């Protein structure tokens, strides 16, 4: 087993924090445990050698690394309070007041697509998106190409659908011969997937009615989180919302967002 020395650990923490905002300062055992075998398989004998290859900015290598150190775990209809809020508060309000009938939504850190597809289903169910006159754009981004390929395919196993309401399962999925479920084309076409590192500047001129960034900030340290939430504030329209994971928090004195209810914030 390749051992991680004190200096290598510190350098690892520094690189991952500076470039990807990922806080690994308390994850020494995780780094060693998850990477040691992979480093050995590459024919390398030390973490220093591996760090050199990371510093060369090999994109595929970096994405493999991030995938090893973070989790892509997700499923349909995760943390249903957010979807309940959309149905009961946000969408009725838009129906009343949004004269242009356009909605711009961003799922930031979308992993394999279950979150943005759930959003497309909830909105479709409310507005009858494909038959009605609403123009809904859902942008879904992640740092990992791998998960985005899976997301674009839109094929999922039974376990990923376990929380989805039965009418949605019937209406929005097609069952394949191998027992897997594919998201219906009418829902897939409403979601655009793109690679985006949340540490980068948001250059997109679009403003969003709602941003979902759930279970992503868990990897970031306090300073990175504050910067990211401030970037989201600029990217959200007035009266727009930021949804974060229920296990995550935003310090009230460090953000201009107003607290609405657990994991829901509003730009007043
Ligand atoms: C646990 S998943 C969350 C998926 C979904 N939002 C949910 O709540 O179920 C976290 C995702 O964040 C992505 N991620 C981590 N760091 C990122 C970064 N700097 N920029 C963009 N995505 C990142 C990971 O690749 C992973 O797919």
Protein architecture, described:
Helix content is 43%, strand content 19%. With 268 residues, it is of the alpha/beta class. The protein folds into two domains: 6-69, Orthogonal Bundle (Chemotaxis Receptor Methyltransferase Cher, domain 1); 81-266, Vaccinia Virus protein VP39 (Rossmann fold). The strands form two sheets. The chain has a seven-stranded mixed beta sheet with strand order 6-2-1-7-8-10-9. A three-stranded antiparallel beta sheet has the order 3-5-4. β9 (258-261) and β10 (264-266) form a beta hairpin. The model has no long low-confidence stretch (mean pLDDT 92). Residues 20-21, 70-74, 78, 109-111, 115, 142-144, 147, 197-199, 214-216, 219, 245 line the site of S-adenosylmethionine. S-adenosylmethionine binds at residues 20-21, 70-74, 78, 109-111, 115, 142-144, 147, 197-199, 214-216, 219, 245.
Tally the structural domains. 2
CATH homologous superfamily name of the largest domain?
Vaccinia Virus protein VP39
Report the bound ligands by name, code or SMILES.
S-adenosylmethionine
- Rounded to the nearest angstrom, the distance between the terminal CA atoms is 53 Å
Key features of this structure:
single chain; 268 residues; alpha/beta; Chemotaxis Receptor Methyltransferase Cher, domain 1; Rossmann fold; seven-stranded mixed β-sheet; 10 strands; 19% strand; globular; binds S-adenosylmethionine
List the helices and strands and how they pair.
Layout: H1 6-20, H2 28-41, H3 47-55, H4 59-69, H5 81-97, E1 102-108, H6 114-127, E2 135-142, H7 145-153, E3 155-156, H8 166-172, E4 173-175, E5 181-183, H9 185-188, E6 191-195, E7 208-213, H10 222-235, E8 236-244, E9 258-261, E10 264-266
Parallel strand pairs: 1-2, 1-7, 2-6, 7-8
Antiparallel strand pairs: 3-5, 4-5, 8-10, 9-10
Helix pairs in contact: 1-3, 5-6
Bound molecules: S-adenosylmethionine.
S-adenosylmethionine (SAM) binds next to loops.
């Amino acid at each position: 087993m390749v051992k991680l020395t004190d200096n290598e650990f510190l350098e690892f923490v520094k690189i991952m924090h500076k470039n990807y905002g990922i806080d690994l300062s308390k994850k020494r055992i995780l780094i060693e445990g998850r990477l040691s075998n992979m480093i050995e398989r590459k024919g390398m004998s030390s973490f220093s050698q591996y760090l050199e290859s990371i510093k060369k900015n090999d994109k595929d290598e970096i994405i493999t690394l991030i995938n090893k150190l973070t989790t892509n775990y997700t499923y349909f209809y995760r943390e249903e309070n957010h979807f309940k809020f959309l149905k009961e508060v946000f969408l009725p309000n838009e129906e009343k007041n949004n004269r242009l009938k356009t909605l711009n939504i961003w799922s930031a850190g979308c992993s394999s697509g279950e979150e943005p597809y759930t959003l497309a289903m909830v909105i479709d169910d409310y507005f009858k998106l494909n038959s009605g006159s609403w123009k809904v754009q859902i942008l879904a981004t992640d740092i990992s190409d791998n998960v985005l390929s899976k997301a674009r395919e839109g094929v999922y196993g039974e376990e990923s659908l376990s929380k989805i309401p039965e009418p949605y399962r019937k209406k929005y999925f097609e069952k394949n011969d191998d027992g897997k479920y594919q998201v219906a084309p009418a829902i897939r076409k409403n979601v655009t997937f793109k690679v985006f590192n949340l540490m980068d500047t948001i250059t997109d001129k679009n403003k969003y009615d709602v941003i979902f960034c759930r279970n992503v900030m868990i990897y970031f340290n306090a300073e990175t989180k504050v910067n990211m939430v401030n970037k989201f504030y600029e990217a959200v329209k007035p009266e727009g919302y930021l949804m974060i994971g229920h296990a995550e928090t935003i310090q009230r004195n460090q953000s201009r967002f107003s607290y609405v209810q657990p994991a829901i914030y509003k730009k007043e």
